[in-house]
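Lecture 7, part B: from sequences to assemblies.

Below are the input chains for today's worked example.
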Amino acid sequence: MEKLVQIKGVSVNFYTYEGVVRALNNLTLDIYRGETLGLVGETGCGKTMTAFAILRLIMPPGKIESGSILFNPNGSESVDLLQLSENNIRAIRGSKISMVFQEPGNALNPVYTIGDQISEVILLHRKGEMISRAIADIDSIEGLPGNRWGMLSSYFRRIQRYLLKKIQSNPEARLPLIVQKIPLARRLFWRLNSEAEKTALHMLKEVDIPDAQRILGYYPHQLSGGMKQRAVIAMALACSPKFLIADEPTTALDVTIQAQILELLQRLKNEFNSSVLYITHDLGVAAAICDRVGVMYGGSIVELAEVNELFVTPLHPYTRALLAAVPRPGEEPMPIPGYIPDPTDPPPGCPFHPRCSLARDICRLERPELREVSPGHLISCHVDTGESIDSPSQN
Amino acid sequence: MKTLKFLLFHFKKNPLSVIGLVIIIIFAIIAALAPVLAPTPEGQFNPYMIPRDGYGSTPQPPSDDHIFGTTQGQYDIFYGVIWGTRTAFQVGLVVIGAVLVIGIILGSLAGYFGGIVDEIIMRITDIFLAFPPLILAMAVTIALGASIESIIIAITVVSWPSYARVIRGDILAIREEDYIEASRGVGASHLRIIIKHILPNSIYPIFIMASLDIGSVVLTAAALSFLGLGVPEGYADWGQMINFARNWIVGTPTNTFAYWHAITIPGLFIFFFVMGWNLLGDSLRDILDPRLARR
Amino acid sequence: MTALVRTKNLKTYFPILQGIIRRPVGYVKAVDDISLDVAPGQWLGLVGESGCGKTTLGKTILRLIEPTSGHIYFDTPSEILEQIESAEAEADQCKLKPLYHAHDLAAFSGGKLKVLRKDMQLVHQDPFSSLNPRMKIKDIISEPMIVHNTVSGEERLSRSAELMKLVGLSEKHLPRYPHQFSGGQRQRIAIARALATTPKFIVFDEPTSALDVSVQAQILILLKELKQKFNLTYLYITHALTVAESVCDSIAVMYLGKIVEYGEPGAIFKEPMHPYTQALILSTPIPDPQRKRGRLVLPGEVPSPSNPPPGCRFHPRCSRATDVCAQTEPPLELRGQNRKVACWHPLV
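Predicted structure of the full complex, as structure tokens:
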């Protein structure tokens, strides 16, 4: 399978008042075309930081120290996202790589309607398409017999067409930009907005929002959590991104609504043929929809494998402990001893060693490398756990 | 210890706040040392009355006898501004103190209990806020007669409604927090909840507002004195000194700045005093708010 | 049958006010006629999604939210409960009034309520907002002791230290502030505060939903130890059926202000009777690729509690609904030992 995204040795540090926080520590991860990769971990493990690093959303006091993220959307050439200019990465955000955030209420601007917000994304990245459609729309009217105001409207139409053509040939053209600033003259671009809105309506229907036409005019506070998240997904998929990052999109939703959204995401992913990086702390969700799952701890990946293999034969001690800590019917959860490490003062060597029952001397000294122990199954551990634990099955 | 480290860290980032603090400290020293810097002449009972060197109306320029010169009526400017510092502190601190107490009590009652209590208190504040502040202060001062106390009362009357409103707003925000409900669940009385839980969490914005306001209180007092209301004639008050200099701002036909000392010196004192408090208030806001935000 | 906590026909309605005069134009029926018993020593899980009224029910029992109507009995001897029941059956007002006055928590006023607050406590959902950020931990934990005057000054400090040890924290943390602790640690502090007056009954409002999986496991084990040690009774509110199935003795499933199913977790999990319970079970993903849950999609959204559907509240989303479901509400009936369902066409 082809690789869509290759994260190589990315380290991210945050320089805070309390000290230096090593949010990502030499992270290496590959995402293949058309797969759903789950990123699982607890608070502070760095999974959200991974998403931000890909989209270059890390703000000071955070700094990307090293590494590269190669992105290959078309199968032709890769580009290093960390080296792109601000303008170039902005062109990618929202169109080639999109993100769905955790709290749908926070991701939507409360003072704009849903329709406006989706149109904003469309006009940002698919402007050329909308312009062509608007021009085609004008051209189709020209042929029809006119009405009483024929001459006047034809005149206005010609102005609109002229302006649109100008933008089409040169996106930086000054005249249309100036016109857009003048309050009433702005109305000349109404065709553009209406095309965007039609596309937005189409997207809303894609995400199964009932009564989509009415929802276009709704404000976020008028929608329920599940509806808001669907709207956010519509925004994210509006430009058919090749890569969708979903950061705990269903954590804030009820379980039955979560099931609906998960099914929606799977369907859309297949329809749009995108890859999905699904970040979650819920192992159950990861098991339900992901093809491969990566477990993160202390800023890097500790285990990565196909979903079935990870849950049936987990090899890393942390993965096993995590699976044992999930409450199951009739069984008590098994807590992991110790606490999540202080991000400003992480333990030396392997980040998990203070809580690991298999820890040896080398674990205190050296941080283990991510190595492949069986095809497609990578772990980062000094101990060869395949032999030392009696039965790794967690059922 | 950690607080000190944090304060130092913050002051390094924002040197202007140190300037504000330094200015206020200088003024405080001046006010404390007033009897030393500008001794009251023998036999004068009330140290706040500025000594007059004659009864001429033209201000005299600075000289050996009068370091800052004299203003209309031959009042010594140096004496006036030094003792005026004390007056400024008095007016500022007493007014702000009173306003804080009244505002906090009424605002807390309105915010915590809501309902009809809230409505009544808010309507009362509405009534007070309906008057232009300076006009209302003038009316109160005139009604109470000319003295420093009437200025203090007048400005208090005019300023308390905003404080009550701000506290009420903060309390409304905090009232629904989980830890308030937890205290109710424990069985704490209303009084305990207000004093131990609500106020400590909502009071900081008020302190910031108060320190910024001391400056404007002093300015209002000066305005009242400038208009001739408030302090009796000859009282050591910056506003009054500007009042005296009123007729002499334009100077003589030949020299516009002939009487600059009469207006500029008291003016500068007011300017720096108010600026000092403003800088201090700004820095207080920066210190206290990010701390709250960083929780 | 003894019940430490009993609610009878409990209703909590929130008025929706509109207009300048603030007239009530409707009611949000958060808790709609719930009669529930919690036996002493029981760990009852109250499960449901958002808007079903479980939090409101928990807080109403503690009188943190005022009930609109109905009765609440706390730690009332069973003879008196029987007396009340028989008097209600006879609709004997003369007997009922003094009984209600003396025992019905819903009618208690400030002073009487305060005495009871010693014995019933609440642990909140959000560990970040349930502790006063400007109070030291030792003050937070000792507040219940001060309010109820259970322990005098000197002993307060030692009791606070004891409580911290009980919840797995060190007494070194007492002079610190909440923001210096992690979510899991804060939740332990909240639990310590709840234990300060040696209560009999603790309501937990989704205490672990804001916490990581490993921390949640630690807290659940801690709760189990404390319960055994001090003979506590828990009302555990959660939206995670898996958690309830793992630690609770009994589960009550709520939907839109009503209890739709009640029973033991093993039985409910193996053979759910109410379609909603089944939907919950099948919708909850678990990390077990062999048992593929998380697949069933229950259509539609939860209706607004201010305008619940007529008849059975679940009928618009139920695949088994018939005419009778749309017209009459099914009562919560006993089906087998210790199992109750409110459905016209239960799955079993």
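Note for the exam: Residues 77-113 of chain B form the longest helix (37 residues). Keep this in mind when comparing with the next example.
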